Amino acid sequence: MSADKKRALGKGLSALLNDSADVMPARQTSNGMVSDSNASSSPASGIYEININEIEVNPFQPRTEFDEEALKELSESIRLQGLIQPITVRKAGNHHYQLISGERRLRASKLAGLKNIPAYVRTANDQQMLEMALIENIQRENLNAIEVALSFQRMIDECNLKQDELGERVSKNRSTVTNYLRLLKLPPAIQASIRDGQISMGHAKALITINDPAAQLYLHQQIIEQGLSVRKVEELARDLQKASEKKDKKAKPAEGLSFQMQKIQDDLASKFSTRVQIKVNDKGKGAIEIPFLSPDDLHRILEMLDW
């Protein structure tokens, strides 16, 4: 990739924030920042010192969890050295600001007991604010893979971006964006394990190759219980997928179900994270079949039935 192209791909946040044009030189005060009164009267963007109680958190914040220990460490650093990197806010009214990016710094500053905080003051509509917040977090924060995936999905849904356009904004190729988005198709239990760091992105990518949710959940459980390596999971995933495909070839075509019965079948499959088959005869009698892959998988299903 050429140097010019790399610069173009990496400028997503900078272009949105328009730093060179928007940041107006701050007149030095005793603490080196422009006072809040100037921020209130000037429509231009710039760096100001703002009362920390006048800032509300970003309603579009993609990050949902913060490491408390890391916050305490950052707080102590801010207490000793001050906040070196300003947060970014938009003006929402007289002495009222909404956070665009920097919630971790804002939280740590509050823990450190700061009354005022340096901030870039921007003018942004809701979509720009969402996009700036998402890109800022994706590029600068250690989001877990699910938070990144959710951020990508929000940019596609709410900012009307295509996957290749999204890739350009966050300096990632389309295949990387696709791999993150595919995580959101995994069962909720697996997504929670990715979020909590119980399994890695490599484990998750192997699980995605399996079409059967029940098989995904079974292998996921084995990863947790046995601490399987990514390579081992890839091998097992291939075997499970082959077995699932062979089973599909042998299966008889399902008889036509009414719309209502099909809806019930789909809802049950979603609930139990496995294929569910409903069979109904001409007299309205029938059976519900819930397959399981192992004794552990059977136990999981029985627990969901409060057995």
Automatic annotation (TrEMBL):
GO cellular component, as recorded: chromosome
Domain ParB-like N-terminal, residue spans: 48-138
Keyword entries, A-Z: Chromosome partition, DNA-binding
Gene Ontology terms for molecular function: DNA binding
UniProt GO BP: chromosome segregation
InterPro entries to which the protein is assigned, alphabetical: Chromosome_partition/occlusion, HTH_ParB/Spo0J, ParB/RepB/Spo0J, ParB/Sulfiredoxin_sf, ParB_dimer_C, ParB_N
Family annotation (Pfam families): HTH_ParB, ParB_C, ParB_N
PANTHER family listed in its UniProt record: CHROMOSOME-PARTITIONING PROTEIN PARB-RELATED
Similarity comment text for this entry: Belongs to the ParB family.
Protein name (database record): ParB/RepB/Spo0J family partition protein
Species, as recorded: Mucilaginibacter straminoryzae
